[in-house]
Amino acid sequence: MEWVKKIIYRKAILMLFETRLWSWLLLDIIPYIRFTCYYTSFPGWKYMRGYRHLEAGNFILTIDKWKLTGLLIPGWDHAGLCINKGHEFEIAEMTHTNFTKSTFFDLCKTSTRVSIWECPGWDWDYIYQVIIPTCLSFENTPFDVKLEKGIKALACSEMVFESDPERRMGASDEDILGLGIPYVSPTGLSKAKNVRCKWDSNNEVQEG
To answer: Among residues 6, 76, 139, 183, which is most buried (max CB within 10 A)?
Structure first.
């Protein structure tokens, strides 16, 4: 029966999450698997157009169709938060190396699709006095390999979600992987009640 299969699948996955094998695979193996030996397919002209729209307090969602994680995770597979545009540390991420200080270029060069989002409920005071300081407080937080709630460990989308302590964005905790537990995924951020996509690289067409 279908419901029995779902229960077995969920229990098997949740049991796997508790093992050292899973932590090793997720942190040391899966992030390095890409199904191409060629250069990144994200062109510079798209990067330049996207960068014009980037502002502090925006969150970024990405997809890399050539990466194993892009095949395993439905929809958007990674998220980051813009901390300070135009500096060596622009984007905060949670990756297999834990809290990561990156730039917009870093996200683009490892993606096939990039989008920039804003939450109309995040005014400038909230962004600079709450969102950014809260995000920076996660600097010593490890990567969440179990999709557990709370800030003891954080995945990429959880970092963005937890940086909004007043829950102004209204993010979705839809179980897109069918695990039987609620969690905020990158796609869950895109389905939030109070967010707007400012820019999507898939909508760009090169002139000339």
So the answer is: 76
Is 122 exposed, middle or buried, given 0-12, 13-18 or 19+ CB atoms closer than 10 A? buried
Which domain CATH number covers 75? 3.90.1720.10
Q: What pTM, to 2 d.p., does this model score? A: 0.90
Number of domains in the chain: 1
pLDDT digits (tens, 9 = 90+) for 108-146: 999 999 999 999 999 999 999 999 999 999 999 999 998
Residue-range definition of the domain harbouring residue 89: 2-33+43-202
